[in-house]
Amino acid sequence: MEKGVLHGNIDKNRKGGNKNQGGYTLVELIVVICIVLILAGGAVFGVMTWIRWSQFKEQNEYAKTLFSAAQNHLTKCQMYQKNCVSN
Fold this sequence. Notes:
The structure is a single chain. By secondary structure, this protein is an all-alpha fold. The protein has helices at 5-17, 26-86. It starts with a helix and ends with a helix.
């Protein structure tokens, strides 16, 4: 290999023959960023809706437990009163 042949090929590609540099334009990058932001906004909205739904379900289960405990307690009180009256 002659000295400077490798460098000569690189310079030749830079100077004239290859106009396509293979990058993205600023407009393309801005469009992609906008699309990503829109998708992220939709994901945040979905997560917030899911959190509210899960909190509602948790509170609903808690209310069912309290209602069941109150019914049990009321039933025991009514049975106790019937036993006291019959004696």
